[in-house]
Design a protein that fits this description.
By secondary structure, the protein is an alpha+beta fold. It folds into two domains: 240 residues, no CATH class; 160 residues, no CATH class. It contains 19 helices and twelve strands. The strands form four sheets. It has a six-stranded antiparallel beta sheet. A hairpin with a 2-residue loop joins strand 5 and strand 6. The longest helix is centred in the last third of the chain and has 30 residues. The protein is globular and about 70 Å long.
Length: 479
């Protein structure tokens, strides 16, 4: 199936429902028919397409609508290592994936399913969960694209950590085998059981102790309903200071700049009132009880914040709100939402707002979404779409760069299992499981793809380094 077939078949990035009246046997037959049409072994190779776009040109095109003053930080962060480049190069890889074989089975795809976009955070019920935690690029699309991006990220990260080729292949195959086994297990469950499939760290900790450091193990063992750990709060406290008796964000330019301190060239006079309007209006996208709760909070300060690698340059604001007293704090992140990198290859979202696209995709894929997750779309004019969530709700990012081979294998397996659960919620899990089958044919094929794509990633990193050396792009390292 070609990329053109994919785009036509998805009808502008909408999910395909399971055919009405289809039995499990019908859905198994559908998966096996897809396997016959697109053999699992066909996923093993990566060959750059004829006329492949220059990766730097794709990054420049993506950067055209971003904050120009921040772009050197983006390029500098991408140049730090092959894995850092990979994290920022979702668009070049989406372009490459569009030319690869697909089964024609659609899911709500993450669009950027690499190792560092999974993590531990708090559910609304205050339990630690492990899940995908970045949905900027989410759209309905081929499930294989997420799997291949995850596999390639494991290959690149393992190479960055100095692991030999044999260990890298073991890690990648283990991750894909974990995805396959989880999908086959989920195929045997009812729809409600799939949606209620647990993601709690405390239910997984016995197997995955290796990926948790001492603090995270302590949190996973704690009764979070009764005893709230201060680690996440203390991390947020570092962002603020008291000035003339009032809480304000502490400037750390260029990474954190209070709105009041932004140069006039970077902040129109109406910016502060515009951000107040976003916070006030986004509340309408929340459930009534959450609308009521957040109405108890008032905006105290706001700042621009640089986040991530691939996201650098997108408009991102953090908002400090206060409730009953200065110790009752709520931190929100207001992040720009632009068309997903997959949109050029599967069609843009059916939603009228890119922020709503992100929120809807996150709710479809995550076992437990942020309590204050919502979106904002301007009523008129050329203003930007945004989505809103809490800033760090007991979030823990596991440092891939410090993992040893055994830890990375276990972590990659957990990511594969988690991705399968996310896909099973929206796609035809029975057909996908039948396509994958019992053998490791697909696992080995994708491991081959990942190794070849890691080489391409190295070449693309070299292209960006050459562009920086020639002055084509400005890169500020170490920021």
């Amino acid at each position: 199936m070609t990329s053109e077939d994919v785009a036509n078949g998805l009808h502008r990035a909408r999910l395909e429902p399971v055919p009405a009246g289809a039995t499990p046997a019908d859905r198994v037959a559908r998966g096996k028919a897809a396997r016959a049409a697109v053999p699992r072994a066909s996923h093993a190779t990566f060959q750059p397409a004829a006329g492949r776009p220059d990766p730097v040109s794709l990054l420049e095109r993506q950067a055209a609508a971003r904050v120009p003053e921040l772009l050197p930080i983006r390029y500098g962060r991408m140049l730090a290592s092959p894995f850092a480049f990979f994290r920022g190069a979702a668009l070049p890889m989406a372009s490459d994936l569009a030319a690869t074989p697909v089964s024609g089975l659609t899911v709500q795809a993450c669009g950027d399913a690499h190792l560092s976009n999974f993590g531990i955070f708090a559910s609304p019920e205050r339990r630690l969960v492990f899940d995908i935690n970045d949905f900027d690029e989410t759209l309905p699309g081929p499930w294989e694209w997420d799997v291949k991006r995850l596999a390639a990220s494991a290959e690149v990260a393992a190479a960055d950590n100095g692991f030999p080729r044999s260990q890298r292949r073991e890690i990648v195959q283990a991750a894909i085998a974990s995805y396959r086994r989880a999908m086959r297990r989920l195929a045997g469950l009812g729809d409600l059981e799939v949606w209620q499939s647990p993601a709690e760290v405390d239910q997984l900790r016995e197997r995955f102790q290796a990926v948790l450091d001492r603090q995270e193990r302590r949190l996973a063992d704690a009764d979070l309903a009764r005893a709230r750990d201060r680690a996440g709060i203390q991390a947020l406290d570092k962002l603020i200071r008291t000035t003339r008796g009032k809480l304000r964000f502490a400037a750390d330019p260029p990474l954190l700049v209070p709105v009041a301190a932004l140069p006039a060239a970077e902040a129109p006079a109406s910016l502060e009132s515009h951000l107040h309007g976003i916070v006030a209006n986004y509340r309408r996208t929340l459930e009534p009880d959450r609308q009521f709760l957040i109405s108890r909070y008032q905006v105290a300060d706001m700042a621009r914040k640089v986040v991530g690698v691939g996201s650098v340059g997108m408009r991102c604001w953090i908002i400090l709100l206060l409730g009953r007293d200065p110790d009752d704090r709520l931190f929100l992140q207001v992040k720009e939402a632009v068309p997903a990198v997959l949109a050029a290859f599967v069609g843009d979202t059916a939603y009228s707002s890119q922020g709503q696209r992100v929120v809807a995709g996150q709710r479809l894929m995550q076992a437990a979404s942020d309590f204050f997750l919502g979106w904002y779309r301007p009523r008129s004019g050329p203003a930007h779409d945004y989505y809103v969530r809490q800033l760090r709700d007991w979030k823990f990012s596991l440092t891939v760069e410090r993992m040893d081979p055994a830890t990375m294998r276990t972590y990659a397996e957990l990511c594969g299992q988690t991705l399968a659960r996310a896909h099973a919620r929206s796609g035809d899990r029975i057909a996908i499981a039948a396509y994958l089958g019992k053998s490791d044919t697909f696992d080995r094929a994708v491991a081959g793809f990942a190794a070849a794509y890691a080489d391409q990633n190295e070449r693309d990193l070299a292209s960006l380094a050459a562009a920086a050396a020639s002055g084509r792009v400005a890169a500020e390292r170490g920021v």
